[in-house]
Amino acid sequence: MDATSLTVFFKAALIGLLIAAPVGPIGLLTMQRTLERGLAAGLATGMGAAVADALYGAIGAFGVSWLIHALIEARTPLALGGGAILLVLAWRTWRAPVTDAVAPARDARNLLGLAAGTFLLTLANPATIVSFIAVFGSLGGSLQTAPSPLWMVAGVLAGSAAWWLLLTALIAHQRSRFTPAWRGRINRGSAGLLAGFALWQWASLVAR
Question: Carries keyword Mitochondrion (predicted)?
């Protein structure tokens, strides 16, 4: 790895971290699932978002301009679909039973399902699309001189994954401090916020 590739990697890692870190619907889902189902379920949820971030990074890094324009044009149906998914998740979170013990994901297929769900939800989030359009512009000069755009993709994935690993590890470590009653309140609060994100996403379409 030469100096230019290393610079692109760390720039992209920082951007991946900054895009993943703000608390939004994916962050809420990740924290709630870590509390209820343990570290593996929370980490799988976050990794789905990290892979989606890396995919957007790949689209920009390899200059697939027609796909970028297609995503911009598809912001409305993506927002509608993403909002509907958030409402379903809000309903399930509200109704989820709370027990004393962790209810772990049953197997690898279950973990893959959690990751796939947040992967699709992240792809359908218009805010993610807008964020990565800004990223493509900020790294444009560096990408032209980098030996391979794969360093940008790897950086975005590493930065985003590092955030989800840190977040889920902290939540899992503190899980024993939360009583079932408190976790029930957190579930209901998370459900309300998820529904709020869905309605805000739809309202933003009307305001455009």
Answer: no
